[in-house]
């Protein structure tokens, strides 16, 4: 089964979600066909495979600005996936200024707490969060629990997860 996203034209500051093998990869649209995103240390840019990223033992990632077509890969699979229903975005100029300041830097990386989705939501909203990390790291209090709790921008969301 292959997921191909339908996509509208992105605007500066939009969150972009890219389908990958096990997870989705995230970037922030910078305008003029460019996106800012995280890539593993020691690996070139372009299409980052999330399965590779999640298995990287490094606790850091490169912040890269690259062409959207290179990050999206063949078929230009991506979708604009803003989360403005959860929290209003910062002003676009503030988002762009913060994003530009991050380009070329190395940032902390951890799939459960500092992944590419955290990175771009922090740029857009001022607070990082990742719904997909909860699916693989449910509530730490009980390893047999079928309930995961995620606090997103001061809103508690309880997800009931199916366990095999």
UniProtKB/TrEMBL annotation:
The GO terms this record gives for MF are:
N-acyltransferase activity; phospholipase A1 activity; phospholipase A2 activity
- Gene Ontology CC terms: cytoplasm
Domain LRAT: residue ranges: 15-132
**Annotated GO biological process:** N-acylphosphatidylethanolamine metabolic process
Superkingdom of this entry's organism?
Eukaryota
For this UniProt record, give its keywords in alphabetical order, as a comma-separated list. Hydrolase, Lipid metabolism, Transferase
Protein name (record): LRAT domain-containing protein
């Amino acid at each position: 089964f292959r997921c191909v996203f339908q996509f509208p034209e992105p605007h500066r500051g939009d969150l972009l979600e890219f389908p990958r093998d096990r997870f989705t990869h995230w970037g922030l649209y910078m305008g003029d066909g460019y996106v800012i995103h995280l890539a593993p240390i020691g690996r070139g840019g372009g299409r980052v495979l999330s399965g590779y990223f999640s298995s990287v033992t490094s606790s850091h990632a490169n912040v890269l600005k690259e062409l959207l077509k290179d990050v999206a890969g063949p078929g230009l699979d991506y979708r604009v996936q803003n989360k403005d229903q959860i929290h209003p975005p910062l002003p676009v100029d503030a988002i762009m200024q913060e994003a530009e300041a991050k380009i070329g830097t190395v940032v902390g990386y951890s799939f459960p707490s500092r992944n590419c989705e955290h990175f771009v939501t922090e740029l857009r909203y001022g607070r990082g969060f990742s719904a997909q990390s909860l699916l693989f790291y449910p509530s730490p209090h009980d390893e047999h629990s079928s309930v995961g709790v995620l606090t997103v921008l001061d809103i508690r969301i309880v997800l009931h997860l199916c366990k095999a």
